[in-house]
Automatic annotation (TrEMBL):
It is found in: Cell membrane; Membrane. Its main location: membrane. One of its GO terms (cellular component) is TAT protein transport complex. The chain crosses the membrane at residues 32-50, 97-117, 129-152, 179-200, 212-230, 236-258. It comes from the Bacteria. This is Sec-independent protein translocase protein TatC. GO terms for biological process: intracellular protein transmembrane transport; protein transport by the Tat complex. Keywords: Cell membrane, Membrane, Protein transport, Translocation, Transmembrane, Transmembrane helix, Transport. The gene is tatC. Belongs to the TatC family.
Amino acid sequence: MDTNRLDKLRPPAAPGGRMPLREHLRELRNRLAKALLFVFLGTVAGWYLHPWLITELTGPSCHLPGLHGIAPATSACPNGLMVMQGVMTPLTFTFKVALAAGVVISSPFWSYQLWAFAAPGLHRHEKRYTLGFVAAAVPLFLSGAGLAYWVFPKALQILLGFTPGSFSNFLQGDQFLEFFIRMILVFGISFEMPLLLVLLNFAGVVSARSLLARWRTLVMLIFVFSALATPTGDPLTMMVLAVPMTALFAVSLSVIVWRDRARTRRAASAALSPDEASSIDLTPSQIEVPVGSGD
């Protein structure tokens, strides 16, 4: 094919070599389509795993001692807390569990698609920093989610322990799942906040001096946030969230202090140019006269 004809078919480049808006939108569409495809494949895998996932999800709550529900006791749920109401509820509950598992399973793939869309517009050092933040964000979120999974049955036992002896409890499946996912998200996102502070420091928004001057207020705000953000609202859950967040805040503050000091040292060394002549000291110095040379 003629090269001149190919040049006519190719979309014109924007000034400065940037991608035109239409190409950006096409690239975004392709990346989103691939991300949704990976989520769909992960959901299919989650559908096959849903019996095991539901057992792991409801098992700790079904074996809480001292609680009795209205459902008949079974080997899977001895206390009879878990019930489902409605014809479509079992199907929707299973689909929600499979979808949540699919999002988690496919997270490395759809997060790469988002990274691949944003990476061409970043400089080399910005790509390095972004990859570092993503590498730190994933284990932080998983740590928060794991802590929420561990504390959830204990918080549920505390809340349901206020039930009078003449009453029984039951937990609808969809409400139980929604409550559990809310707690996972609250803990996971809360563990990302110290990383956000470091990111703001890299962007020049906050400094170590300003954080050190307000660290007591920030710690108090962490405890207030933990009390308001936890779905259960009990003191145990609040402390389980607030204490690790305070520790992560201390770690992030140490990183920010170290980086600001390193930045100050680099700025001081950069202010001394190797081509700049040093100032000459013209102050006369005293000369000692040797003893015995008075002629």
